[in-house]
Amino acid sequence: EDQVTQSPEALRLQEGESSSLNCSYTVSGLRGLFWYRQDPGKGPEFLFTLYSAGEEKEKERLKATLTKKESFLHITAPKPEDSATYLCAVQAGNTDKLIFGTGTRLQVFP
Amino acid sequence: EAGVAQSPRYKIIEKRQSVAFWCNPISGHATLYWYQQILGQGPKLLIQFQNNGVVDDSQLPKDRFSAERLKGVDSTLKIQPAKLEDSAVYLCASGVNIGTYEQYFGPGTRLTVT
Hints:
The structure holds two protein chains of two kinds. Chain A is an all-beta fold.
């Protein structure tokens, strides 16, 4: 069964303290791995799509990387406005559905 | 560019009542998805449409849930009768087409069943 596991469940950082979020997956025929950000009371906001091992993408203070078994979301010098839940999802096989992990709740304190 | 619109934003009903949610996707997007997000979990796909046809409804509880996308644009999701375990946020998403494209989500409808 396709599965996505995110860790840690929650992360508290001081402003400027860099860290990484992990997304490990077990799927048959990965087609894409997606990172989303979700603020309380809102729908997920698309951040990145990664298609193959070795691929990296960056946006402001965020950098996503992909290996054959996991993806990392690196946050460099975070700011309080980066506080949110970060969701990882995979698309695999012959279906378009996104299989989501349970997310990492990030809090950045000034 | 306008995003995915959903209404209502909040709904409280008693168990065994019925409820309907509405979604208007991003203009020009062919695919439309309904996801259910239970508190503390990631979204789970309920149904996917390509234009006005169903692509995947394997995880839709068809004894109580139904969805339609008439004319290939707006969509409605209905629950009848509702159960306590249906309390969740119902998210609508749209995508350019079938395939590995990003899906854009609406704000969701928070349903509470008492």
